[in-house]
């Protein structure tokens, strides 16, 4: 898993240079990305970037079926690395049943089969076979290129993401010793406390990836929450619940927070987070929006793998997910 994480800068650099050739509808009132887990996260990243640039809504659907409002001018993009995820396959089949515009992104499996049988535009995920969550750079880049073709987000080829990832790798990689490596230091703190990860705007999306990677790689519980919403609920127990002392607060910051949001971070720390086991601020992540997102994801992926090492667990297998898929009758990954 560490090798896969460390490959993110070079994969991102290579894929960002490539162009995407997929026939797509040119009249759209919206896009629904369907996907679960690591694949669904790619949809979350597209939707997050599209928030500030897209003239039409980009929505992520993480369930069976499709919402009723999805109509003939909404493109459904079904994303599944394995191509075997039950919920995603069900949504794609529903799109076909309802005769909705559909595109598919997968490495193979039943989803690729369905696309070929029905003449659905297919984006074939490149690279050797790996765990879906490790394949994020192989999926997110073509998905963003698809988004750019539709005018939802800027062309990702203009991003400085690869450069940013290389510089983070030099600061946080395994050869950088604990004393000067903030990712290793944070993993050390999370050995004794549950991570409570907070972010605003794009960093709220990244907080979800951090939580999922801590769950799947380090095999620990973690919480992800966003500002300002947490100011209206999650803030309340911090000064009064003993559980506060068992949590380490991770604040994912970005360069474009407004003054009001910055103030909320300050006041929330004074009223609530000061009761935690500790607080670590990560960032602010800088650069263009894609560079900031991918940089923050890379950072969290490293923390999760370092924590797995400290806990003495293998980051790769996700036995409970495989067992669940097996029990439900799908193919375990
Ligand atoms: C496993 C992982 C999971 C999968 C999810 C959906 O590494 O990250 O969260 O991504 O179970 O499977 P796919 O991505 O194959 O549709």
Q: Could you explain the architecture of this structure?
A:
The structure is a single chain. The chain is an alpha/beta fold and 333 residues long. The protein has two domains: 2-158, Glucose-6-phosphate isomerase like protein, domain 1 (Rossmann fold); 161-311, Glucose-6-phosphate isomerase like protein, domain 1 (Rossmann fold, 3-Layer(aba) Sandwich), CATH 3.40.50.10490. It contains twelve helices and nine strands. The protein has a five-stranded parallel β-sheet, sandwiched between helices. It has a four-stranded parallel β-sheet with strand order 7-6-8-9. Helix 3 (37-50) links the parallel strand 1 and strand 2. The longest helix has 23 residues, at 289-311. It binds fructose -6-phosphate. Residues 36-39, 80-82, 85, 88, 131-133, 216, 318, 321, 333 line the site of fructose -6-phosphate.
Annotate the secondary structure layout.
Blueprint: H1 2-6, H2 8-17, E1 30-34, H3 37-50, E2 58-61, E3 74-80, H4 86-97, E4 102-106, H5 109-118, E5 122-124, H6 136-149, H7 161-172, H8 182-190, E6 194-200, H9 202-216, E7 222-227, E8 247-254, H10 259-271, E9 278-285, H11 289-311, H12 319-328
Parallel strand pairs: 1-2, 1-3, 3-4, 4-5, 6-7, 6-8, 8-9
Helix pairs in contact: 2-6, 2-7, 3-6, 3-9, 4-5, 7-11, 8-11, 9-11
This protein binds fructose -6-phosphate.
């Amino acid at each position: 898993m560490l090798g896969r994480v460390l490959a993110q800068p070079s994969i991102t650099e290579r894929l960002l240079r490539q162009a995407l050739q997929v026939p797509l509808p040119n009249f759209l009132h919206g896009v629904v990305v369907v996907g679960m887990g690591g694949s669904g996260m790619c949809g979350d990243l597209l939707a997050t970037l599209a928030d500030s640039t897209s003239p039409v809504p980009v929505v992520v659907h993480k369930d069976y079926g499709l919402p009723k409002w999805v109509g003939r001018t909404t493109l459904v993009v079904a994303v599944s690395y394995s191509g075997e995820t039950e919920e995603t396959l069900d949504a794609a089949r529903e799109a076909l049943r309802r005769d909705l515009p559909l595109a598919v992104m997968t490495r193979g499996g039943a989803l690729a089969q369905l696309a070929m049988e029905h003449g659905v535009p297919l984006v074939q995920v490149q690279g050797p076979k790996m765990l879906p969550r490790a394949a994020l750079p192989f999926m997110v880049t073509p998905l963003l290129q698809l988004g750019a073709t539709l005018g939802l987000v800027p062309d990702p080829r203009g991003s400085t993401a690869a450069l940013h990832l290389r510089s983070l790798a030099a600061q946080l990689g395994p050869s950088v010793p604990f004393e000067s490596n903030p990712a290793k230091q944070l993993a050390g703190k999370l050995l004794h406390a549950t991570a409570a990860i907070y972010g605003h705007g794009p960093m709220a999306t990244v907080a979800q990836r951090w939580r999922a990677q801590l769950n799947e790689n380090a095999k620990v519980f973690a919480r992800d929450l966003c500002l300002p919403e947490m100011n209206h609920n999650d803030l309340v127990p911090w000064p009064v619940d003993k559980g506060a002392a068992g949590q380490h607060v991770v604040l994912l910051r970005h360069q474009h927070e407004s003054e009001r949001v910055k103030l909320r971070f300050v006041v929330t720390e004074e009223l609530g987070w000061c009761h935690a086991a500790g607080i670590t601020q990560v960032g602010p992540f800088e650069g263009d929006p894609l560079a900031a997102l991918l940089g923050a994801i890379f950072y969290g992926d490293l923390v999760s793998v370092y924590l797995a090492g400290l806990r003495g667990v293998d980051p790769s297998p996700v036995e409970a997910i495989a067992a669940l898929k097996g029990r439900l009758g799908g193919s375990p990954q």
